[in-house]
Amino acid sequence: MSINAESSQESLPNFHIVIPARFASQRFPKKLLAMLGDKPVIQWVYELALKAGAESVVIATDNEAIFQLAQTFDADVVMTRDDHENGTERLAEVASLKGWMANEIVVNVQGDEPFLPVELIHKAVLSLHNDTAADMSTVACAIEKSEDFFNPNVVKVVCDQMHRALYFSRAPIPWDRDGFSESKTVQEGMPVFRHIGLYVYRARLLAQYTTMPISPLEKWEKLEQLRLLHQGVKIQVAMASGMPPHGVDTPEDLEKLNRLL
Questions:
Q1: Which of 170, 216, 258, 260 is the one with CA 20 to 30 A from 252?
Q2: For residue 143, is it within any domain?
Q3: Distance CA 122, CA 228 (A)
Q4: Per-residue confidence of the chain (261 residues) as pLDDT tens digits?
């Protein structure tokens, strides 16, 4: 039975949500324990995930303080190994511990995204569910500002006619050969899309991911999803109407969100 499932969600397939909850962060240590309004950040994320209608919601951490805190608000929390390179590896351990079947859908909801729209989760889940040849999905939105297109901190994605990812890059792609020779301005109608880092997997891909070596593309671009493209994994890309609210990356982000609350 789904958690908090509403009638509007009846067409959704069954899926699980895992919230990787790392304690360490270079820019903002202990941010998941920081207070946002009257609750810690990780509790906001867990309660948001409950609203998505998932079959289960699990917090996956390698930190005792986060583990104990999650128990205080009755979360399903799993203590994972502390040697994972990224959240995908942590998801793979949880999928194995929970015994999820190969075709089950698992959503990675970042522990520092307290206001991620539930609709984005649904878009990504349905996108993967409807593409039986894909083992992964993610989300993108149109880039509206030229400066974002040329910003290496904004990850770009290009897709094929089936909305599967062809490539992700920090570089401006696709390149307007003729137009950009005159001005660095994105013309109306150009298929320029910004990647939104919400990932959905079939459980069988998570099991395979832990055996995949780092790819040359991933090494240079510092984009984990390129490891999967390099291995021939089909990644379906759902389109969002715009960027979701900003997460908690820095103390300044937390301060802004507290002011908004």
A1: 170
A2: no
A3: 22
A4: 344 434 345 589 999 999 999 887 767 889 999 999 999 999 999 999 999 999 999 999 999 999 999 999 999 999 998 888 888 999 999 999 999 999 999 999 999 999 999 999 999 999 999 999 999 999 999 998 999 999 999 999 999 999 999 999 999 999 999 889 888 889 888 999 999 999 999 999 999 998 999 999 999 999 999 999 999 999 999 999 999 988 898 989 999 989 888
Q: What CATH number does the domain containing 52 carry?
A: 3.90.550.10
Asked if residues 128 and 202 have their Cβ atoms less than 8 Å apart, the reply is yes
Burial (0-12, 13-18, 19+ Cβ within 10 Å), 117: middle
Task: Name the β-bridge partners of 240.
Answer: 141
Contact 126, 10 (CB under 8 A): no
Would you call 122 helix, strand, or coil by DSSP? Answer: helix
Q: What's the CA gap between 150 and 184, in Å, rounded?
A: 8
Do the domain assignments include residue 167? no
- Is this prediction's pTM over 0.85? yes
User: Between helices 64-72 and 41-50, what is the axis angle to 10°?
Assistant: 50
The C-alpha atoms of residue 34 and residue 76 are separated, in whole angstroms, by 20
- Of 19, 170, 172, which is closest to residue 87 (Cα–Cα)? 19
Task: Answer yes or no: is 217 within a domain.
Answer: no
Picking from 246, 226, 142, the residue whose alpha carbon sits closest to that of residue 190 is 142
| 63 domain-assigned | yes
Q: How many structural domains comprise the chain?
A: 1
Q: What range does the domain containing 70 cover? A: 1-116
Q: Which two tokens stand for residue 172?
A: 């401006």
DSSP code at position 58: E
